[in-house]
Fold this sequence. Notes:
By secondary structure, this protein is mainly β. It has one helix at residues 3-29; strands at residues 32-36, 40-42, 48-55, 61-67, 73-78, 81-82, 89-96, 101-108, 117-124, 130-139, 141-145, 153-157, 162-165, 168-171, 175-180, 192-194, 197-200, 209-216, 223-238, 243-245, 252-261, 265-270, 273-274, 281-289, 292-299, 308-316, 319-328. The longest helix has 27 residues, at 3-29. The structure holds 2-acetamido-2-deoxy-beta-D-glucopyranose (NAG) (2 copies). Keywords: Immunoglobulin domain, Signal.
Amino acid sequence: MHFSQIFLVLWCGLSLRSRVLAASAAVSSAPVISDITPDLVASVGDDIEFNCTVENVGRMSVSWAKRTSEIGSVVLSMRNILSLSDPRYTIVETNDDKANKATYTFKITKIEATDMGAYECQVILTATDKITKKLNLAIKHPAIISEENTPKSMLVTEGQNLEISCHADGFPQPTISWERENRAIMPAGGSSFDGQTLRIKEAHRLDRGGYYCIASNGVGQPDRRLIRVEVEFRPQISVQRPKIAQMLSHAAELECTVQAYPAPAVFWYRNGAKLQSGSNYKISNTASSHESTTSILRINSINELDFGDYYCNATNKLGHADARLHLFQPVIPVPSM
Ligand SMILES: *[C@@H]1O[C@H](CO)[C@@H](O)[C@H](O)[C@H]1NC(C)=O
Ligand SMILES: *[C@@H]1O[C@H](CO)[C@@H](O)[C@H](O)[C@H]1NC(C)=O
């Protein structure tokens, strides 16, 4: 072996040794954030404090900072000095010189909603290097139902399934329950339902009405919102007097009642022809309730040709229905006054 080769091996071995030594010395004296207060939940008006304990603190500068975005933060304190003057803030430095450690206690009085967020304890090592640990401060706030994510009204065709979802914000996360207006029984039975999504299976016209979404999280009053449910269905006709007896030259009224939603178009027919209001007939359609239309065909003065069948026909976008009414001359004349 040549002398220079021996020297190289020796030199390499020595330099490796010294580097290991330097590294272990650095580890034992590097500052460490040994303790930070766990995540906090506070209510508006509370006083809180949180701690950061640093070992091997030496002459390092320890700061509390508040995260303002993913990457941005604002420094609140450095060592025992506030860098942001807010009368609600206090910083206390507690040194344990023997153990070479220090605790930085950051206090906030009269908590406000805007105090929520991440707080970071930072030990500045160099201009470009720091060690950090953070805690999250959550502020309780009441449940609020989200306007844009919760419908005001829903439309369903009878026989179809319907799902209504309600979304609420708040901390802690609100729970959602449902009730019907006027304390009506829920479609699936019972007086209420717990869950974010209300499901109505094979909707029935009786399921129509107002449903309350109620969001609560134990903070303040629960929030509630009324959601209107409309159930569409095809017309159905009922006739109380399908046979009407009346004498010549007298007036007669033929009446049919149509259940339908949306509101139906109701027409009267005789011998295949649509009847119009005029000198002999008068037709009046009246909505007697949300889903009910009453149609009356009035014949002012009956003549011979008016006896026979009349049809009340009702149509909406879901279908059609009709009923037959019969006008006849009584065999025994009705005594006139
Ligand atoms: C913070 O540290 C101080 C001093 O060590 C202690 O009295 C206090 O209880 C600690 N507070 C919390 C929230 O850990
Ligand atoms: C009205 O109902 C009658 C009886 O079913 C039917 O013959 C007629 O075609 C209907 N008219 C219309 C315009 O739907």
